[in-house]
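Sequence, please.
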């Protein structure tokens, strides 16, 4: 395990992870520069542009809480540099956890648990990289056609049915991953999952319609509630 920890936090991984983060920062700078130039072209006042940037930065604090919380969970599984890079690159924490879990199962390992060694870690890295590549590849090929395809599907079928099918696929994927952590597992795992699910339901069903911005940190909040509830239960025994 010590060898794996050293590998996950090695200088080499810090170096290659930093390259990706630098690219993301460069992209952000180019987008901001382009937006600023376009604002000047249309005569947008400089004061209002600065105010918009400041408002956007402040607004981003809330949605950033969820990735930070999940970053801590990813660090325990993938190490600091990989978790840092993946959250800056993709930001889709659920996908990162799902892909690393699915790929690790191919070699009979559980991320951060039994069988989690250098081989399983390398498989997880490859799985996340290929998943990332397919996102970009599909976007490159079909981004311009997606709206037409979706319009065609919705014209042939009930749009509500289409949305239910897509939501059902996501629920099936993450439900399968969750079941492996609660079936035949200690009661603390079950309690954490139950409280997290209830919290997520309350946020999405009752709070999000009134406060849309709460959708972003919903996952992080649900994880915290589940962890604290399970910890309180286990230590109260």
């Amino acid at each position: 395990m010590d060898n794996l920890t050293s590998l996950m936090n090695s200088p080499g991984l810090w170096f290659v992870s930093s390259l990706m983060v630098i690219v993301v920062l460069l992209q952000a700078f180019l987008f901001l520069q382009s937006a600023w130039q376009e604002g000047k072209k249309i005569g947008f006042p400089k004061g209002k542009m600065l105010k918009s940037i400041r408002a956007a930065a402040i607004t981003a604090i809330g949605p950033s809480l969820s990735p930070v919380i999940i970053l801590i969970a990813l660090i325990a599984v993938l190490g600091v540099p990989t978790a840092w890079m993946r959250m800056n690159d993709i930001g889709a924490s659920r996908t990162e956890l799902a892909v690393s879990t699915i790929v690790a199962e191919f070699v009979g390992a559980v991320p951060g648990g039994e069988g989690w060694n250098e081989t399983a870690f390398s498989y997880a890295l490859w799985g996340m990289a290929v998943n990332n590549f397919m996102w970009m590849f599909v976007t490159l090929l079909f981004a311009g056609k997606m709206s037409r395809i979706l319009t065609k599907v919705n014209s042939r079928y009930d749009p509500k049915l289409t949305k239910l099918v897509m939501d059902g696929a996501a629920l099936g994927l993450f439900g399968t991953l969750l079941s492996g952590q609660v079936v035949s597992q200690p009661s603390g795992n079950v309690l954490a999952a139950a409280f997290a699910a209830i919290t997520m339901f309350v946020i999405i069903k009752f709070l999000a319609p009134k406060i849309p911005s709460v959708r972003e940190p919903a996952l992080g909040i649900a994880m915290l509630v589940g962890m604290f509830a399970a910890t309180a239960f286990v230590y109260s025994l």
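The mean pLDDT is 83.
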